[in-house]
């Protein structure tokens, strides 16, 4: 099964009503309702009661909806109980440090789907690794459940454990991000992230540069914490017009050469062989997927009477 296209995952606190009410207008491919860090401990129990209604509200604009749960033995059982409901596409599981973390949640999701009459395996997992301990287990984590659709790194928590401050170019998290991307590609999981920090919400230029660095490494999307970051992620993780035009020319040239028995052709002074042809096909497939997601969001808003 193809992974969902999530160029942008907007995380917002579920207990802040004005954020929930406007989330469907933000243009994110996915909205993550947060029961974890953004919700004070005293409000977590009450926050769970908002899940079912909030899922419907934030999904009105055509975005997929995930719920970030607390990966804590005293909280996760009730969080999962509240999170498995109609309209939820996935659970965002933070602070993952072992395959057991994932397999236990996967088993519980299966029980809840059956108990609530929901399709088996319908709730996907977005895994969030936040520590060196988790990174050392990342291959086992990636193989722990067929529900895993995407994976990301908690950059600021990871830096905290390293004992370093964020740098301008994110060099201190280059290795963990690169390793995560490699593991994800090997397991058919979508790697999400930026090579920088999402917390600097006013530095949009720096955020865009961080997203571009991550895209160059192989990330296909990222999560964010402010609506102003959404459009940047949607743009960075979509094929540019220049890339699309080049990909179309590569495909046309290679396929024309194939008709006369050539396995490689020349285009603009360079060689186009099978890997380059396949890479161009990926660009065009990505363009088509982006178009489908944008069409879904546009039509959902039109049904609500919101053209923008």
């Amino acid at each position: 099964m193809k992974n969902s296209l999530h160029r942008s995952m907007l995380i917002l606190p579920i207990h802040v009503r004005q954020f929930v009410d406007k989330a469907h207008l933000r243009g994110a491919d996915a909205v993550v309702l947060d029961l974890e860090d953004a919700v004070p401990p005293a409000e977590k129990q009450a926050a769970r009661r908002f899940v079912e209604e909030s899922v419907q509200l934030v999904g009105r604009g055509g975005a997929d909806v995930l719920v970030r749960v607390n990966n804590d033995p005293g909280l996760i059982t009730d969080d999962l109980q509240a999170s498995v409901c109609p309209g939820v596409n996935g659970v965002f599981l933070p602070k993952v440090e072992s395959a057991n973390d994932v397999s236990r949640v996967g088993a519980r999701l299966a029980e809840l789907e059956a108990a609530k009459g929901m399709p088996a395996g319908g709730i996907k997992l977005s895994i969030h690794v936040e520590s060196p301990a988790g990174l050392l287990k990342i291959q086992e984590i990636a193989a722990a459940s067929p529900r895993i659709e995407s994976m990301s790194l908690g950059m600021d928590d990871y830096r905290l454990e390293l004992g370093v401050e964020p740098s301008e170019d994110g060099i201190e998290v280059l290795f963990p991000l690169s390793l995560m991307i490699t593991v994800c590609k090997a397991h058919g999981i979508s790697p999400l992230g930026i090579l920088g920090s999402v917390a600097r919400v006013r530095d949009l230029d720096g955020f865009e540069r961080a997203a571009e660095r991550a895209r160059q490494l192989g990330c296909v999307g990222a999560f964010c914490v402010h609506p102003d970051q959404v459009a940047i992620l949607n743009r960075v993780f979509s094929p540019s017009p220049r890339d699309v035009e080049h990909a179309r020319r590569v495909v046309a040239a290679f396929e024309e050469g194939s008709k006369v028995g050539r396995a490689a052709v020349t285009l603009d002074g360079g060689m186009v062989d099978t890997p380059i042809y396949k890479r161009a096909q990926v660009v065009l497939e990505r363009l088509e997927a982006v178009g489908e997601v944008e069409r879904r969001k546009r039509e959902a808003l039109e049904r609500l009477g919101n053209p923008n």
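Residues 274-304 form the longest helix (31 residues). The chain has 13 helices and ten strands.
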